[in-house]
Amino acid sequence: MKSLNQLASKIIDDLYIEEAMKNNPPEETPYHKRKMSLTAPITTVFMFDAIAARFGKTRIELLEPALELYAEQLFLSLSDEDRNSLSVEVDSLITENLPEGIQMQVVNSAGSFENECAEWRGLNASFKSFNKE
């Protein structure tokens, strides 16, 4: 598990590399994203804005990777029972919200799935496998 310091350093390192290479990330399909809003102390928001501006990014582009990793860390910190139930629940919600007609094949540690999301079940299965004694 990565610490917050490691995560922050990695994000900044990636931004420096991206800046040096002038490499813009590929466009992602819209259904992979869901809008959310949050409130934070003004000192924190302005620092995110300043760091993002330094690299020609938005604060959202800066925060997305951190939020993704934080969600994963919170998930992995849950009890086995909660991880099992929430992974099924969230994967099901994601599947229900996929655009109609989308075709996908998912293969991960939890198994093989056709036209359904299995990201959290896969992470849960990998975590269980990694932590076997």
General description of the model:
- Helices cover 59% and strands 6% of the residues.
- It is mainly α.
- The chain folds into two domains: 4-74, no CATH class; 79-130, no CATH class.
- Strands 1-2 form a two-stranded antiparallel ribbon.
- Strand 1 (105-108) and strand 2 form a beta hairpin.
- Helix 2 crosses helix 3 (59-77) and helix 4 (80-96) packs antiparallel against helix 5 (119-130).
- The longest helix has 19 residues, at 59-77.
Summarize the topology.
Layout lengths: L3 H18 L20 H13 L4 H19 L2 H17 L8 E4 L2 E4 L4 H12 L3
Antiparallel strand pairs: 1-2
Helix pairs in contact: 2-3, 4-5
Observed structural traits:
single chain, 133 residues, mainly alpha, 2 domains, two-stranded antiparallel sheet, 5 helices, 59% helix, 6% strand
> What overall form do the CA principal axes indicate?
globular
Radius of gyration: 17 Å
Order of helices and strands: HHHHEEH
Q: How are the strands ordered across the major sheet?
A: 1-2
Biggest sheet, in brief? 2 strands, antiparallel
- β-strand percent reads 5-15%
Instruction: Indicate the multimeric state.
Output: single chain
Number of strands: 2
Could you say which structural class the secondary elements and strand pairing correspond to? mainly alpha
Q: What share of residues is helical?
A: 55-70%
Number of domains: 2
The total of helices stands at 5
- Mean pLDDT, all residues: 87
Compute the separation of the termini in Å.
Answer: 18 Å
Report the uncertain regions.
Answer: none
